[in-house]
Write a structure and sequence with these properties.
single chain; alpha/beta; 2 domains; seven-stranded mixed beta sheet; five-stranded parallel beta sheet; 20 strands; about 15% strand; binds FAD-MDL72527 adduct
Length: about 500
């Protein structure tokens, strides 16, 4: 874009300094916009990218992996450019591995009666589950036989085990239930019964075996923020309300902050989470958002997935083990929900991933728990969570003296600026809902593009990921860049 064109004077406010907000601001600044201001409610940039510490080790409280680290993935390309990855992640072999969202980790299986199961017994059932899951992705635009992925999986799995003897069926159920709980974590949902079958296939993956940031995911954010002019981001500055116009009258958008300050802008890019929008959209926008957008905010799902890090003095798991599954033997029905959340919330935890390499992390496991059970876990004290997780591990390993050295859990549902973990396609959702979520307001009239929307939940096929959020921020920056390119090349509009 030429210098001296109208875009240089346009005032743009970005609400939220997560990866979507920062990438939008970075793109606009690089294109020559001089008045870009990011308003962030908390004291830090990164949002759901948050690196913490357990003893001397770094641990990821939020996003963990680059999903599909290969050339097409912009997070991988940036991380490589900033020198943030291990050499192994950069190899062509790593980039070429196509795992379609399910990395082939070395598993171990423990049961609620304290036995370690032979993996050979479990793997065929897991394969069947993954085949059904794969089938669940093929209903987009074709009409759904049942509304949810959970119902679809249960009906297919019930057919498969109809003829089986009681013991085989019981083992099959406990494995399927465990896999359903894994998928609740993957999808960030309370139950797979809440994930819409019709839109499930919208999610797309890149090739590449998922990798982590050896010095923490926040390195990505720090590098991006360093490309912004200093003082671009105002911290501890929550936005309360945004006033826009749905009439032809020309007036600026007004961003009202919690401290009562009213900031005027030509455009506002809203990057708050879908969880926050669900809770606050009715008071956050004056006038309210168009009805079709409100309905899509309601329809699209947003749930909770939390981590519980547990550190030990030494490993009780196999040296090559990468994921530990806990199978409950008393589950007679096929379900991913716990009947009495208060007394049995920990039954929802599917198991643990092992932090690797051991030379870097020592002996740390990361437990995964989704749904209302996870939200209940957030209300408990650190001591109560430690007690519960210790009892659980003792029971499944059959070792009554195992004692964790340290425990640390995330609390994403309680976080008032996030209200959960990430989005998933809700029941009845379609690609139209995702389009509606990312649609600017208004689209026509004398003052278009007053409100723009970015954030992971607005991406058509990479929702729930860091790369989806990053691309959505760039998409909205590009929308403004091309808006002003059109103005500056149009002889009539350039005089405005
Ligand atoms: C990924 C992964 N990962 C684990 C866990 C979580 C997430 N994700 P932000 O919320 O970051 O920013 C908004 C900002 O706005 C924020 O700073 C607020 O403070 C601020 N704000 C809010 N209100 C405000 C106000 N009023 N005023 C001012 N500011 C305000 N993604 O790629 N790899 O391993 C994981 C994981 C526990 C919680 C993840 C992962 C999701 C990403 O973290 C997330 O998408 C982005 O960081 C969001 O960035 P943003 O900018 O949009 O919002 C088949 C199929 C299935 C489909 N799913 C499969 C994919 C699996 C996803 N996997 C996730 C897994 C993990 C483990």
């Amino acid at each position: 874009m030429e210098s001296g064109s109208p875009h240089q004077d346009a005032t743009i406010v970005v609400v939220g300094s997560g990866v979507a907000g920062v990438s939008a601001a970075q793109r606009l600044t690089a294109a020559g916009f001089r008045h870009v201001r990011v308003l962030e409610a908390t004291a830090r940039s990164g949002g759901r990218i948050r690196t913490g510490a357990l003893g001397n080790n770094i641990v990821e409280i939020g996003a963990n992996w680059i999903h599909g680290p290969s050339e097409e993935n912009p997070v991988f390309c940036l991380a490589r450019q900033y020198g943030l990855l291990d050499p192994e992640a950069l190899t062509p072999e790593n980039q070429a591995m196509d795992v379609e969202g399910h990395p082939p980790w070395v598993p171990s299986f423990y049961t609620s009666s304290g036995c370690k199961l032979d993996a050979e017994l479990v793997l065929p059932v897991q394969m069947t589950f993954l085949e059904i899951l794969d089938e669940s992705s093929s209903h987009e635009g074709k009409g759904e036989p049942v509304p949810s992925v959970g119902k679809f999986i249960r009906s297919k799995a019930t057919d498969k085990w109809r003829e089986a003897d009681a013991a085989t069926r019981s083992l099959g159920f406990s494995i399927i239930n465990n896999m359903l709980k894994v998928e609740c974590c993957v999808n960030g949902t309370h139950s797979m019964d809440e994930v819409g079958l019709g839109a499930y296939g919208l999610y797309k993956t890149f090739p590449g075996l998922d990798c982590t940031f050896p010095k923490g995911y926040e390195g990505l954010i720090k590098n991006l923020v360093s490309e912004l002019p200093s003082d671009s981001v105002t911290y501890n500055y929550p936005v309360r309300c945004i006033e826009w116009n749905d009439t032809e009258a020309k007036s600026p958008v007004i961003v009202e902050c919690e401290d009562g300050q009213r900031i005027t802008a030509d455009h506002v890019i809203v990057t708050v989470s879908l969880g926050y929008l669900k809770k606050k959209h009715s008071t956050m926008f004056r006038p309210p958002l168009p009805l079709h957008k409100q309905l899509s905010i309601q329809r699209q799902g947003f749930g909770t997935n939390n981590k519980i890090f547990v550190e030990f003095d030494s490993a009780w798991w196999d040296a090559d083990c990468e994921v530990i599954h806990f199978l409950w033997e008393d589950e007679n029905a096929m379900t991913d929900q716990v009947s009495d959340v208060q007394s049995s919330w920990m039954k929802k935890l599917f198991g643990f991933t092992v932090l690797k390499p051991t030379e870097r992390y020592g002996h740390i496991l990361c437990g995964w728990i989704a749904g209302h059970e996870s939200e209940y876990m957030e209300t408990l004290s650190d001591h109560e969570v430690t007690q519960a997780i210790t009892q659980l591990i003792r029971r499944f390993t059959g070792n009554p003296v195992l004692t964790p050295k340290r425990v640390l859990r995330s609390q994403w549902f309680r976080d008032p600026w996030t209200c959960g973990s990430y989005s998933f396609p809700g029941i009845g959702c379609s690609s139209q809902d995702l389009e509606n979520l990312g649609e600017p307001v208004p689209t026509t009239g004398s003052q278009p593009l007053q409100l723009l929307f970015a954030g992971e939940a607005t991406h058509a096929c990479f929702y729930s990921t860091v790369h989806g959020a990053l691309l959505s921020g760039q998409r909205e920056a590009d929308r403004l860049i091309s808006h002003y390119s059109i103005i500056s090349t149009s002889p009539v509009l350039s005089k405005l």
